[in-house]
């Protein structure tokens, strides 16, 4: 399995930007996929964005499309989430996840696809 460590969370104001990082250690493959989920207390963990490591295909939740950008640096084995035009409703604990090997049925929005998770990083957006 891949070990994941997130960083970059914090407290920002509405409209600000923030970049999250997820450093991966362990084996990754061209069909590895990595993603970001977020969770607020009392609610389910929601999909935010995902990227397929080898092909670079990206996927976004409708709520963040046009504001967030997911990317990866293969040389550093690190994934990023650039979050722009942040809103108070973006406040949550953000989790990095990895699906070591995916196939053609890969569903980026399903947490069941992912076999490794980071510890989470808090993002708070004040109005």
What kind of sheet is the major sheet?
A: 7 strands, mixed
The helix/strand class is mainly beta
Rg (CA only): 14 Å
* Number of DSSP strand runs: 11
Mean pLDDT: 95
Give the helix proportion (percent range): under 10%
Number of helices: 0
Which percent range describes the beta-strand content? over 45%
Write down the overall geometry: globular
State the distance separating the first and last CA atoms: 39 Å
General description of the model:
The chain is built from no helices and 11 strands. It has strands at 3-7, 10-13, 18-25, 33-39, 46-52, 58-60, 68-73, 78-83, 92-99, 116-117, 121-126. Strand 4 and strand 5 (46-52) form a beta hairpin. The protein is globular, with a radius of gyration of 14 Å. The model has no long low-confidence stretch (mean pLDDT 95).
Concise account of the structure shown:
The chain is an all-beta fold and 127 residues long. Helix content is 0%, strand content 49%.
Give me some keywords for this one.
0% helix, 127 residues, four-stranded antiparallel beta sheet, mainly beta
Produce the secondary structure layout.
Blueprint (H helix, E strand, L loop, with lengths): L2 E5 L2 E4 L4 E8 L7 E7 L6 E7 L5 E3 L7 E6 L4 E6 L8 E8 L16 E2 L3 E6 L1
Parallel strand pairs: 2-11
Antiparallel strand pairs: 1-3, 3-8, 4-5, 4-9, 5-6, 7-8, 9-10, 9-11
């Amino acid at each position: 399995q891949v070990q994941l460590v997130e960083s970059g969370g914090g407290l920002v104001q509405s409209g600000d930007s923030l970049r999250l990082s997820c450093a991966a250690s362990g084996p990754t493959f061209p069909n590895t996929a990595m993603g970001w989920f977020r969770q607020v207390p009392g609610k389910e963990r929601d999909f935010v964005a995902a990227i397929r490591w080898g092909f670079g295909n990206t996927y976004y939740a409708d709520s963040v499309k046009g504001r967030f950008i997911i990317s990866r640096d293969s040389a550093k084995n690190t994934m990023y989430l650039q979050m722009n035009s942040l809103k108070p409703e973006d406040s949550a604990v953000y989790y990095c996840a990895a699906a070591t090997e995916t196939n053609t049925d890969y569903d980026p929005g399903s947490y069941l696809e992912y076999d490794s998770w980071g510890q989470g990083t808090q993002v708070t957006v004040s109005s």
